[in-house]
Amino acid sequence: MRGSKLSASLILASALYASGAAAEEPRSHHCGPLPETAIEGQAWAIDGGSMAFVASSGRRFAMRLWAIDAPPLRDAATRLENPPGLRARVSLDDQLRTAGRRATCIPKGWDRACRLVAICEAGGNDLSVRMLAVGYAVLRTHEAMGSTEFDRGRTYAETEEVARASRAGQWQGWLGPKAP
């Protein structure tokens, strides 16, 4: 019985996705209305995957970079600083500082913490791609591959694969030492 419910759910989800119904992002949420257009402003790294963002209009957002996860700043169990998380935060903040803290973001939705989830660029670089390339983020496959941004998601996956193969950033510790 359980398997048939799961199969029916998967078939329904596939049909919705194929029809484009599941690909449409909701424009409003309990966190507020989703901005309709790209927003520009100043940004500061909170951690390796999120930013404090002040739009040119003066509106303030906590913003999460679309389709990536970065290591946490602190270990959840011990509350001690997590070195990979600190390095990820510094990497994102360096990219923002190099771009004069100016960023342009295309809103995609809200997350559970009422952070605006967006595709963001600074200094002409997609920030999610840069974090994947330096090895301080991993791909959120369900976001990248389950949306209308499939080509962008494929680029993100390829970028992560190159970072893993070259043992960039956190991949050096996770995958162990390189074989000779």
- Using the coordinates shown, work out and report the CATH topology: OB fold (Dihydrolipoamide Acetyltransferase, E2P)
Total beta strand runs: 10
In helices, the fraction of residues equals: 25-40%
N to C succession of SSEs: HEEEEEEHEEEHEHHH
Task: Summarize this structure briefly.
By secondary structure, this protein is α+β, with helices and mostly antiparallel strands. It has 6 helices and 10 strands, in the order αββββββαβββαβααα. The chain has a single domain, classed as Beta Barrel (OB fold (Dihydrolipoamide Acetyltransferase, E2P)).
Can you give a write-up of this model?
The protein is of the alpha+beta class. The protein has a single domain (26-172), classed as Beta Barrel (OB fold (Dihydrolipoamide Acetyltransferase, E2P)). Helix content is 37%, strand content 26%. The protein is built from six helices and ten strands; from the N terminus they run αββββββαβββαβααα. The chain has helices spanning 2-19, 83-98, 127-133, 141-145, 150-165, 171-175, and strands at residues 28-29, 32-33, 39-47, 50-55, 60-65, 68-69, 102-110, 116-122, 125-126, 138-139. The protein has a five-stranded mixed barrel. Strands 1-2 form a two-stranded antiparallel sheet. Helix 3 (127-133) runs parallel beside helix 5. The longest helix has 18 residues, at 2-19. It is globular and about 40 Å long. The protein starts with a helix and ends in a 5-residue tail after the last helix.
